[in-house]
Amino acid sequence: MENVRRAVRQIAYSNTFSALPLLHLSLLPLLSFASSLYSVALSLRHHLYRLNILTRHRLLVPVISVGNLTWGGNGKTPMVEFLARLFIDSGVSPLILTRGYGGADEAKMLQRHLQGTCAKIGIGANRAAAASRFLEKYGYVNFHLERPFSLAGEKSLSNSDQIAAAILDDGMQHLSIWRDLEIVMINAMMPWGNHRLIPLGPLREPLTALGRADIVIIHHADLVEEKDIKVLESSVQKVKEPVLIFLTEMAPLHFFKPGDASFKIPLEAVKNKILLCISGIGFADSFIRRIEKMGPRHLDRVDFSDHHLFTMKDINIVRTRIQALESKFAAKPIVVVTEKDYDRSPCILERLEPYEVLVVCCRLQILPRYGRTENSFRKILMELFRRDERGCC
Q1: How many structural domains is the chain composed of?
Q2: d(C-alpha 282, C-alpha 72), whole Å
Q3: Are strands 356-367 and 244-257 parallel, antiparallel or unpaired?
Q4: Of 88, 136, 91, 139, which is closest to residue 114 (Cα–Cα)?
Q5: Do 244 and 332 fall into the same domain?
Q6: Spatial contact of 90 and 118, defined as CB atoms under 8 Å apart
Q7: Which of 91-100, 169-178, 380-389 has the highest mean pLDDT?
Q8: Phi and psi dihedrals of 259, rounded to 5?
Q9: Quick one: average pLDDT of 193-208?
Q10: Pick from 66, 203, 232, 392: CA 20 to 30 A from residue 147's CA?
């Protein structure tokens, strides 16, 4: 099954099908048929919402949707955390609504990062129901009517348990909840693949869906050239102009060892070391590029599909690769994993002893460009709370 997943991904990001291996070519008819069915279902679903046959739930607090047009690796969850921290820093309690897909690794990571804060995380496929439960339990804050609101850093809440905003993780295709702000994430390193709909390509919707975006985030912008950024900006603006475009990166902060996330290990710990990076994330190339920048002596990699749950078979494969590296370089390699992989399979990584395993901790940051900075991003959120569309914010 893992080989099939890899084949499908390679097809999705191939510019031409003619050069594909035989296994990949044999999958094309089935993938094309499935993609056509998906296109029809997608169109019908949008039509039903336009006719109000399918209804959208409007929550009692403003809703910010963070989503994308392609599968995995676009920085949705780091952006959700970034938004949550903006609210938390101002004493505002955000409610994060996430489906908890793939072993709930993203939800677990958010829970660990935001532990001890006023943030709340609702997990479940029915996010409207999850929101209702949390709003009933904690109540909500009516900033427009009750008190001024600022995201400039000063505390503005007297009761931080009351929910002031909802952040919809992976929300672009989750049309059943009305959103006040639509943020669309784009992977600068691999934006559109072969431009086909899933499963033949990586697109969850046609590019015309960018017309719904209020803000477009070009993620991993630090890992591509300026000319690539300009081409991507131009392609976005062809669909919707004007639109606010921000650039972001994932900034590595430190490492920690499995089982002890509180002890921070400096990034210099891997300099001139032999590394084996293992990952089961949506876009492993960005992870590898960031580790390469830390100056290892040699870096090898083992990639699995997104949300892959590691098994003992996988651990044995990794151990064999480690031993080969140890024999080749006469030095004990270090295994490096992402936080998502750690939170999905924290215990099984301990089976790699006596080899050292390090988890890299990163945080999303906005790259200043054309006056669009973190402060200007805060101002956009402030405008959201000045609206009076529901009479309560």
Answers
A1: 2
A2: 4
A3: antiparallel
A4: 88
A5: no
A6: no
A7: 169-178
A8: 90, -10
A9: 95
A10: 66
